[in-house]
Amino acid sequence: MSVMLYEGKAKRIYETDEPGVLRVVYKDDATAFNGEKKEVLQGKGKLNNEISSRLFQQLKAHGVDSHFVSQVSELEQLVRSVDIIPLEVVVRNIACGSLVKRTGMERGTKLAAPIVEFYYKDDALGDPLVNRSHIQAMHLAEEAEVNQLQEKALRVNEVLVPYFAERGVDLVDFKLEFGRTAEGTILLADEISPDTCRFWDQASGESLDKDLFRFSSGNLQEGYAQLLERLT
Asked: Where is the SAICAR synthetase/ADE2 N-terminal domain (predicted)?
């Protein structure tokens, strides 16, 4: 039986017999507001695994490398082992969420250009917003690495915005995580799913993401399933 190396809010990570390759198992757990709201939603893990696998493959086809190796079951992926950089990289295309709270911008305002933000990955601190000076002072990443993170995040945006638009969906904003390989290469990691992105139906404006659970505004599984259907 493989050893579990880590358990997060939405996934478990196990070692495998292959050096440098890990097994990710998606969970049905849903959390919001830094874990203050929790629930088990049957089928959520399967939907996120399928959606994330498809998006990693789509990005790969457009030259964006990630830790993703393959989807091996309804709930499992194989991924390359990376040392996660303790920064969340958020790209925003439409004003929503904390951006609205911090700036007073009207929710739904389409931004003239994407905004890239960095957040320090620390649950105890509530994943605070940080700038490049903070990152340098805290020794979280080198300046050249921060530049890479921003460039890679914007490239993900360039690929996915039109991809979803063709399917009647607005990619409002999304969170990315990156990791370093043993050789020092920075790869896109974690997941890209309705847990980590905001998706709005272009016709109705309805959410197809975790806001359905976060604000009790609809059925999460139905929203995720509708998004997956658009992708297939």
From this structure: 5-230
